[in-house]
């Protein structure tokens, strides 16, 4: 995840609807949101962090549910397990960040560490996982995965849930219920 434009350029070279193209676009947006959170303060910073938090929660849930089972087959179980473990740890940190004052020194310090780990995770996906999935799947399967990924994202939790993060089975079992609670919480917090 070198930079947002590089991710977008790479995504643009892939067929529309391809699961990897969708994920690369999201990586670009995540990178941009980290920058905006760091450059903001007060209510604007909180809103931008909330957008980043929701995108990360949805993105990682969808990867675990749609991409990881295929990755385990195409890139190997160890690769899929490593990415799931990184996401489980990120989910814990995101849950901690969510409870902090976004203008506090502790938040700023933890966010910097978190950004480094998220970018490293994305780089691992882009260099190891995505190429194996693209090489091992026909184009129609990659488009179907993209469609499924987007469907899952519409129903995924918007807040971190560390107890189920990193487990595809747990995401399928509890994700829809957690999403209902999260989306209700989000709607009520807008008042």
TrEMBL record:
Domain Hemerythrin-like per the UniProt entry, residue ranges: 19-132
Top-level taxon: Bacteria
PANTHER family for the chain: HHE DOMAIN PROTEIN (AFU_ORTHOLOGUE AFUA_4G00730)
Protein name: Hemerythrin HHE cation binding domain-containing protein
Organism: Streptomyces misionensis
